[in-house]
Each structure stands twice: as C-alpha cells, then as structure tokens.
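Researcher: Before we compare anything, I want clean individual predictions. No alignment, no superposition, just each chain on its own. First chain goes here; please echo the sequence and then give the structure tokens.
Model: Echoing the first chain and its structure:
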Amino acid sequence: MLEKLRELDPVMAERWHPNESRKIRRSLQICLQTGRPVSEIYKEQKMQLRKTLEANTGQAGTGDIVEPSHLRFPTLLFWVYSDKSVLRQRLDNRVNGMIDQGLLSEAQQMFNYLQEKEAKNIHVDRTRGVWVSIGFKELDPYITALSSGQTSPENLQKLKMECVESVKTATKQYSNSQLKWIRGKLWNLLDLVGASDHLYVLDSTDVGDWDNAVRLPGERVTEAFLSGKPRPHPSEVSKIAKELFKLKQQRNQSPSEDLEIRKSCDVCNLPGMTEEQWHIHIKGKRHKNAVKGAEKRAQRERYLARQRECAEGEGLGAQNARAEMPNRLNPSGQVEIRITEHELTIHTEVS
C-alpha cells in the first residue's frame, strides 16, 4: 500500500511510517476516491481554516477580546498548566501514592473476580471498561505471578517494580494525549468559533506560588466573566500563557507545516519527522548509539561472511578479511581477531 501511495502522493507517503497501515490505507482511499493527492486536499482545508480563523478572531494578537458567536452557552475555560518535567514527577508521585493507598490490593481483588468467573465458565470481556483502564492491565503480570506461587521472591520483587513502572509510563502517556488534545482539537475548535480568547492558561509549575500564579488570576478572570466586565487577554495572565499563544499563532500562520516532506530514521525505526525534529533526533544520544551499534553489526557481518568464504576455499575472502582486521596467531593455535571498539575472538584451529 505504501508503494502505491508513493506513486499517487509522495508528500503524504513520507509522513507515515511503514507500520502505520491504517493511516496509509486511509490516505490511499482518499486519493483513489477523489483522484487527487490527499496532501493537496489537506492543504486546501488548512488554508480555508486559516481564513475562518482570521474572520472570527479579527485583530488577533492585539489584546482585544472577540466575543464568539457559535458557542451554545457563555464559556470560560482554564488550563492549569505545568512544566513537563515537573508534571512527570508529579505523575510518578501520584502513582506512588496510589500504591501506598492500596492499588495492588484492588488489582488482586479484580484478579480474584476473574478467577471466580473463569471457574464458572463465565466469559469476562477484558477489552472494555475497567479492564483496560490504567492500573490493572499493567499490574496483571505481577498479580498473576504472585497468585501462582511459583516465582522466587527476588524475581517477584523485580516483576513488581517493572509493573509499577509500567503504570507510571501509561499515566504519563495518557497525560501527553490530554495535552495533545488541548493544543490540537480543543484550541482549534475554539479558534473556529472565535473563542480562543476564552481559554486561560494558569501556570501551576511552582505549587508554592499557587495563590499568585493560579488562584488569584483565576478568580479575577472569573469575576469579570460573570459580571460581564472586560477581561484581560489570555496571553497577559502569565509568562507561559504568552509563550503558548505565540506558538499557537505561529502554527496558524503556517498552513503547510504538517504537510512538509518528512524523514524517517530506519536505524531507530522512527516514523516521519519534520526537518526540525530530524535535526534534533540525529544529534541525540539514542540515534548516535543506534548508529554505532548498526556499524558494529555490519562490520561483524562482513567479517563473518569473509570467514565463510575462507572456509569454502575462497582465498580472496580470507585475504580481504586479513587486510581489514589485524590478527595474530596465539600459542594455542587459534586466530584472534580484534575490531575497533569491540573485540571478537574467532576460534580457528590451524593445521
């Protein structure tokens, strides 16, 4: 499917990782149904969105509040924001608190419930409801091992820590999805109806400054909203609010941002990245380590291939292998091969 999409719409094909079959299928479907590249359609839609935003928001960035005309009720929204590193630590602390308050015991009770139903041949759909919520499914391997009584205390403790860490990871991933929803869908929908000025960002990064950074600004805006008095522009409430509104305005003014040609890292198996994301990625520790590992594996494979040629009587392969890597014959009659930053000893008996 991806090859076909590359023929019809190379721009869109570069956006998707080969494993993103659903997105590839949908893009290909649109191309075939409309007879047009889906990237062109999305670009036109974003251009139309930009015109709508300009019409609804008026003099954007001037500090004027533009009353929305498409909201069903008078609306005021607060986004209690926190710095990412601070938020991640809070989420970890939250999970630790849940563990202290009996999360493992609750997971054990749910496991026992499943066992009782299974004993009665009653099927429980574990793909819905509480069974797929964060907590039980991550702790299930530990509870299962604990109930079996066949796991050593050391391995059981290790499994427990791994499962608790999985709960923390899932919690942070869910938090990221919430932030993505706010920045993307919610904010964009508010833009469409000219109500982006009804979203206020309050910075809760420093809990010790809660009154000044969150409570008092929130109360002032709420009082003005309820009394019908002029409210401050959201970008004026806090420093982080100003930065977020500036970034949002820049994205609105770049209609083709999401459709630019993207790059994929085959070494790290990462999907299409923008030019900016690509440069950040290739400078990162993860990518550099992956490249080094790939180079070592390739070097080892080349050497082993030449050794196989040598074993088959192809002297040329043996000569090339010796030319590439220094070797020496030790007293035991073995050939020792050394590779840069990695040592590989091949035991070869010399006749």
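Researcher: Okay. Second chain, same rules.
Model: Second chain and its structure:
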Amino acid sequence: MSDRHLPTPALIFFSILYRRTMIDVSDIESKLTQNFAAQIGPLSSYFHAHCPMKRYYAKEMGPEEELERIFYFSQHPVARDKLVTLKLAAFRLEEEWMRSSEDHSARTVNIDVGIVTLENLVLATGKMFTHRLYLGQGVCGDLTLIYQNDSFQPLPWTYPDYAHAEIRTFFAWMRKILHLNLLQGLQPL
C-alpha cells in the first residue's frame, strides 16, 4: 500500500496569445495582476516570437501577423490544486475580453494556464482527450512535457509551441527557480 502525501508545490504560468492590434500588452499584464497576483504572487514576463499555432488560432482571432504570444509566470510556489481555480478565472477573463471586443464575439485573447513541477509541465484545458485527466469543475490536466535527463521532453501529443526547444529551455529555467525556492523552504501561497 502506498502512503498518501501532498506533492511538492508548482510554479504557475499563463501563456497568452493575443491580437496586438486589438489588445495592448500592458492591459493584459494589468488584468492578470489584478485577477491573480493575490493568489500566486507577483508576475514576471517572457516574450517569445516563435508561435507555430498562429494559423490554428487565426480562424477565430484574426490574421496570423497580428497574433503574438507572451508568457507570465509566478516565481512563488503554489499548491498544485490551484490549477483548476486559476483556469476557471482565466475562462472568465477571456469572456470579459470577448464581450469588450467590437462585435462582442471575437476572441482577442487565448489564455493557457499551466503548472511547472519538478516532474512535468501540465496545462489546464476544458477539452477531454485520451491523455488528459479530469481535475474537476470541467477542467482537465494535459500532461504536456515530462522532465527527463535534465530537460523537459515533449510527448507525442505536445503542442508545437510547447515542444519548441527555446520554450522548453524557458520552462527548465522556471523549474530551477522552483527547485531553489523549495530548497530554501519557501512555503506555497
């Protein structure tokens, strides 16, 4: 019989795909801080130009050349089970931006919420699939990357954005921050 115990905490991140001609990045940062900083601590950002999923999202968000991705992340550990609550809040924030768009139905922001742990990277999603586990309240966990041989490794179903080497290096850096925080005894929020 295995013993039950709580897992180590995680770092939260938000991967934001947005239409830069309709949304200013400072507005995104302000809304994220307003909605999430109290739960997960201050946010830092990381911009990366590579985004192979632009074509996929262009159908509902607008021309590929107007779409950009930016990551926001907490450097303070949080309990892993906050992922569901944060994803639900992100759904509400996406809907708020949609209602404020010119035609009130255009999606101008896509918010991926995920956790970086010592073992893996998990994205929260509302879509069920074979490799996703139901977490509750309509939210599933998508095992996106696993940590093996001193780096994050993609899986057959990993989205191209997350499989990109530079993005995986960024998440490995986040994992190092988490590891240092845990070694220093920093308690989760």
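Researcher: What stands out in the second chain?
Model: The chain has five helices and eight strands. Additionally, The beta strands are 11-19, 43-47, 67-74, 109-116, 120-125, 132-136, 139-148, 151-154.
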